[in-house]
Amino acid sequence: MRNRQRLMIELLALLLTVITLVLGGLMYFSNLKNTRQNLIGVELADFIYNTDYSMKFGKRIETFYGMQEDLLELRDSFDDVDQLHILSEENRLLFSTEPAMIPERAYSMPVGNNMSDTSRLYCMYAVGDDARILTVSRISDMQQEMGGYLLKLVGIAVVGLILVLLLIHLVWRLVPEGKRAYRIAAVVPLVWIAVFSAMTGVDAYRDYAGSSRELCESIGKSVQTDIAKVEALGVAREDFYEVEAYLQRYTDMIPEVEELSLGENDEISYKMSADHRRKMALDYILQAVLLLTFSILILAEYQIFVTNTGTLTEGQNGTV
What is the DSSP letter of 77? Predict the structure, then answer.
């Protein structure tokens, strides 16, 4: 019976490690998708805001002349987007770069959401009040990055689990009393899951911070490209106006960025959203807390079980 109790705690440690590993991987992949969506949003910003500006004068997107050609040209300007689809408010397909079978749940996604299948990422953006644009992009590079991260996470999980099992085994040998050994050994997986969850959370937050810098660099490149286009048309730098309103299109589309300003030498200064950063940090903390709570609940349920069945009694020298 005593060995069975130890086995239950070891199985619990294994179960919680696998759950933490899976949730950590899902969180990392969610970060990758959100980062890709933001980067695509930066490249779509001009098209969306120019279209939105025209629609404010009462023009409906269905009547836009040359929209199909504009959409194809926009698609060709992307490195990682294969398809663009403009949808009506009722999910009716208005324009498309190519006929393709799109999952129904992708068409009906709310603005700002994304989803993926085995090979594609689908991202939804607003175009005015009555239309949306759906992008379809490859995720092979994201899958490779995800694979590398999972290998790292699995390595940490295996090493940590081995240490946990060794500690449980050591407690069981050194503590002769059944109840006391059980209680001490039960703390080991709880501590391990708290540490492992914290590590995945810190990794995810560090990756989020890195993606924010990448995002701002992408915005800077997009702004510099637009400035070069305007200057190529013969517009002098001193004739630029409403620069703040122009930059606002990026802060409206990207929740991570609170403020942008254009400095000397076309350098972009940015201020990240403190509220959004706190929200992300809170999400990672909550995941660690939920995993720890889940672990405690499982242990409590097992404790109730063994108490009600009378299987956990005082024992000496391995007896019960």
Answer: T
